[in-house]
Write the structure tokens for this entry.
Amino acid sequence: MLKTAGIHHITAMVNDAQRTIDFYAGILGLRLVKKTINFDRPEVYHLYFGDAHGQPGTVITFFPWPKQLKGRIGQGQAGVTSYAVPEGSLTFWKNRLQIFGIEFASASRFGETYLQLSDPDGLQLELTERKEGTNHTWSFGGIDAAHAIKGFGGVTLISAKPDRTADVLENVLGLACIGDEEGFLRFKSSAQLGNTVDIKLTPSVRGLMGAGTIHHIAWRAKDDEEHARWKDWILEKGYNPTEIKDRNYFKALYFHEGGGILFEIATDTPGFTADEPVAELGQSLMLPEWLEQKREELEQTLPKAEARILKEDLR
């Protein structure tokens, strides 16, 4: 059977582009690797944040749209995004979050300590120390490689039917079940980052899509050839994937798993240097060829937004 290496990216809904960039780049120190548009709604940005190159397993993306209503985290969604930081760096992160007025709490799960916090739209995040994964080479806003976020630690899924979601993780995506602890079932993949997936087993409210919620989670396929095999495999397992879509930086297909969560399979290639060099990632608005004729109109419509260094408490 096919086995995904792990999480490719996670995509969420938010209200404000600059506020999102300030939080994920200015406070968390992620690199803004791509500033483009939602291909289905070109009047809305699609912002990508990750490591220095935007490698799979490090990338969180956002659709910032001021008009969308507030969502509710619950069943049928990925509920919590976990980030991996170097061993010994949680004290640094506690201090940094305090400097910027970000409230946080501590929790333990599967032998790991987590700092739990929320972004300005209410998305739930965690930081945890991991030996796995190379240190981040991107330095921004006073965060050095010894403390910088490496990429995803994993994600917590809130399923309407946990047993069916567990079946998809294990028997469709090829993850291994490695533990059951205090209301969570844990799965693991082979990658060094984005490799742990927890299913919350305790009851939750029904999720409502909107600002402050995760839209979908994407899983890795090595290349176009493997991606085509994934489509056949998903069909064989009784699910209904979409057609393969070209997202410029990866190929994508989507399907809803049995617990109501939207899953994507995305290719590792060609990556975010497909239309701009590494040194210039995230600095300019990048458009697909079929929208270049509307560049002037879109640049006037979209709000100004850029990565900037923050120097004071945001409260």
Q: What stands out?
A: The first strand starts at residue 7 and ends at 14.
